[in-house]
Amino acid sequence: MSLTEQLVSELTLDDLEGEQRALAECLGLEAYKRLLLMYAGSTFTVRMPDKVTIPLRNKRIRSEFNGYNWGELARKYNLHEKTIRNIVSGEISRIRAEPMDGQGSFFDDE
């Protein structure tokens, strides 16, 4: 273990001031120490929450899509209907191929 790593491991919140203390309080001291050792001196961006959560939002939209409710989803998620169509484009054929409630299949044994 290097001297720097030793000193970082001994850090407490009382050793930190200003922005660095606020960051350690936000992350937790142990996570702050890992961040310090891995990224000290680096510049990076913490993305806006609405950008980071796009995959989760799209997953929800696909799960709520019923084959026809583009407008409803567009209003719910404050998106353009064309955006909803792009998100669910791979789902349309699959959903519409599923039998409707109570509908039997041509290939059912009964």
Short description:
With 110 residues, this protein is an all-alpha fold. Helices cover 60% and strands 0% of the residues. It has eight helices and no strands.
Q: Cα-atom Rg, whole angstroms?
A: 25 Å
Mean pLDDT: 90
The number of strands is: 0
**Helical content band:** 55-70%
Which residue ranges are poorly predicted, with pLDDT under 50 across at least 5 consecutive positions?
A: none
Distance between the termini: 72 Å
Shape: elongated
Q: Based on the structure, what is the oligomeric state of the protein chains?
A: single chain
Beta content: under 5%
The biggest sheet, with number of strands, parallel, antiparallel or mixed sense and barrel status, is: none
Number of helices: 8
* Helix/strand order: HHHHHHHH
**How many domains make up the 3D coordinates?**
2
Structural class: mainly alpha
Word description of this protein:
- The protein is an all-alpha fold.
- It folds into 2 domains: 3-39, no CATH class; 49-97.
- Helix content is 60%, strand content 0%.
- The protein has helices at 3-10, 18-27, 29-39, 49-52, 54-64, 70-77, 81-88, 92-97.
- Helix 2 packs across helix 3 (29-39) and helix 6 (70-77) packs across helix 7.
